[in-house]
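#onboarding

Welcome to the new folks! Below is a worked example of what a typical request in this channel looks like: someone posts a single protein sequence, and someone else replies with the predicted structure as tokens. Don't worry about understanding the tokens yet, we'll cover that in week two.

Example request:
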Amino acid sequence: MPDTPESPHPNTPQSLQPNTPSAVVTGANSGIGRATAITLAKAGYHIYATVRGLAKADKLLAKATTEGVNDLITLIEMDVADSASVNRGFAEIFTSTDHVDVLVNNAGVGGNAVTEECPIETYNEVFNINHNGSVRCIQAVLPGMRARRSGTIVNVSSVVGKITAIAQSPYYVSKWAVEGMSEGLAQELAPFGIRVAIIEPGVTRSSIFAKNIDAPNQSGAYDAHYRRLFAFYAEGIAKATPAEEAAATILEAITTHEPRLRWRCSWGADELIRARESMTDEEWVALGQHDDDNAYYDEFEQRFGLDIRPKG
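Example response:
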């Protein structure tokens, strides 16, 4: 009896059938990235799931096996912060397919700091990953998409891409840049039939929050800012939306027959963005003038409908 051939390792690119749609999902080892990789695979896409280290993808592979889509996921080692790594990763992808139909730029990091006390190096690091990392991947897939005059680019922004969350300057600066780049990109690509979608999640269950606990309050002048930041996230984490909700939103943005540029999902996103849009800039600035935390929490709840007072 002949030996049964072994199944290919998920890190080995396999040639795809011509009619199999393909999607690249960055930062696929956890959170929204992992949920998106699984969700798109279940929808029939072959997924090139990028991770900074192959050893970090165990949970993704286990989930893919449980969901019966392990054969639709290929791991690609890639660090979006490094141009050479991105070039190597896409060269590997293009050994098995000549088309990337969807790019989901999900890889990202947080960053807490007020502007006065945020090191320039932190701005550079966060911006390089969240904004420049997306651009590197976009530049890798666009020549093929333009040639085919089809494709979708999904850029995962954040609620803080529309509202400046207190004491998170490097994070919201990078996400506002993603929003601006994406809005311009959508118009640039309109003549080529390529769709661009911006996803603006609120608080989603993800490991990013466990990693984002720094409070570099060197002067002590910004104690209230950090208290209010962590009060917001304590409430958000307690009510955080499963990453699968964001993944479902991403799938809808890709497949809908009524495309639009911006998509909101997850805890707090709709309330925060809508309320900020209804405020004047002067009202927004005045919110920060409260010396008393309770007065701040009262006005925050009045304006945004979210009670972020510390519980217990």
